[in-house]
Write a structure and sequence with these properties.
Layout lengths: L1 H4 L17 E3 L2 E2 H4 L5 H15 L4 H6 L5 E4 L10 E2 L10 E7 L10 H4 L3 E2 L10 E2 L4 H4 L2 E2 L4
Antiparallel strand pairs: 1-5, 2-4, 3-5, 5-7, 6-8
């Protein structure tokens, strides 16, 4: 799955056409971006990474693959990292919505044999849910995709 997403798979090398969408920064890691903690600067930095790294950049997953990108709250100590822009409490290991696509992926973008590795949720709305409490992951994603 990971190799397919990053276009490195020697087996699953037929990739869907690029979505050619755009992206926006939603929440971002204080720890990672503390030297320039503003969305405009982060957006520009991500665009430069995309120009330099192409399909190997995080933003390519959003622009061309149509995936929402969530990052985890990290740090060596509680409170060292937090999602800037989120009003509420978080803890290490929570997931926050970092990048939002304008054109969305679907399970159909994955080869049939890889689909069984996709966790599904009937509760999470990626367009609205900005923070995922790590203690609830098994509740929110109780099953794997089953093709019919």
């Amino acid at each position: 799955m990971n190799e397919f997403i990053w276009e490195e798979s020697p087996i699953f090398d037929a990739y869907p056409e690029n979505k050619n969408g755009a992206f926006s920064v939603d929440l971002f890691s204080y720890l990672r971006f503390r030297s320039h903690p503003d969305k405009a600067h982060i957006t520009e930095e991500l665009k430069q990474d995309w120009q330099r790294l192409g399909s190997q950049s995080d933003v390519n997953l959003v622009i061309n693959k149509g995936m929402f990108l969530y990052f985890g709250v990290e740090g060596s100590n509680p409170g060292e990292d937090y999602p800037v822009g989120y009003e509420g409490t978080t803890q290490m290991g929570d997931y926050f919505r970092f990048l939002v696509p304008t054109v969305f992926a679907s399970v159909d973008d994955f080869p049939q044999p890889l689909r069984r590795g996709i966790a599904v949720s009937t509760i999470i709305d990626f367009e609205k849910d900005r923070l995922l409490d790590n203690r609830q992951i098994n509740t929110w994603f109780p099953a794997m995709f089953a093709s019919h």
